[in-house]
Design brief:
Length: 151
Amino acid sequence: MDRDTTQDQNIEENEHFEGERLDLPNICLPETDNVLHSILNSLNQNIADFYTFMKFNHYLSEGHLNVELLKRSMSIHRDFAALFLHTKEDLVLIYPDFIEKTEKLLFKGGASSDCIKHTQKMCRAINDYKIALHRDGFLPDLRRNLPLADI
């Protein structure tokens, strides 16, 4: 047994262990910008994968294609839900109708709707949502501004 295991066994049941470990460094919470960029990177990758499988659907078996499209659709849904819940409070006062429509699409959906069509609608909503995030300063505009002297 190592030292930590024996230390845990030596604590009696009615003793209180404070839980503070001096040998572990304090890990600070991630900054919001990093979280948003991480979510957006994952979301963009999953959308690209979804459309790639849609484009090359003739080269895959139907069973394999359905499994991959379902995986990508669920990943898109998960990432967009995380992005939406992370930024909803700040955008609801600015775009209340847009947020309400997006929330219905994301969380209610249609029970009998086609998964592919629903995901395509969601991808269009994601594109609009990213534009709103850029417009309101949540995400920096990564496009390069060309100086007029170079033209």
